[in-house]
Design a protein that fits this description.
3 helices; mainly alpha; single chain
Length: 97
């Protein structure tokens, strides 16, 4: 699952208001999203793949630092990248025939 964030007004997503909202969305997704394949419910951490740790950690650290320091941090966010596997990493998630 990937979530891309933009503002409706096309403005800066690095404002405190936008960062707070992104943090709320991130928490909601990781704590509440489930998927059902007809047999079993899966939690976010069961299906997040490459986004569980390394790929999201820089963005989450940035959000937490910016919010904790009220935007006064010298932390700089560059564009993190993640490389997904070239095969379907969730084949086990698909219902079996």
């Amino acid at each position: 699952m990937q979530v891309l964030v933009t503002r409706k007004d096309g403005g800066n997503v690095l404002t405190m208001e936008a960062l707070e909202e992104m943090n709320e969305v991130q928490k909601f997704i990781t704590e509440n999203i489930t998927a059902y394949n007809g047999i079993k419910d899966y939690l976010y951490q069961d299906i997040c793949g490459v986004y569980c740790a390394d790929s999201n950690s820089a963005v989450i650290a940035f959000l937490q630092t910016a919010l904790a320091s009220q935007g006064m941090s010298s932390m700089r966010l560059t564009y993190p990248t993640a490389q997904a596997l070239q095969v379907c990493p969730y084949q086990w998630f698909l219902p079996q025939a």
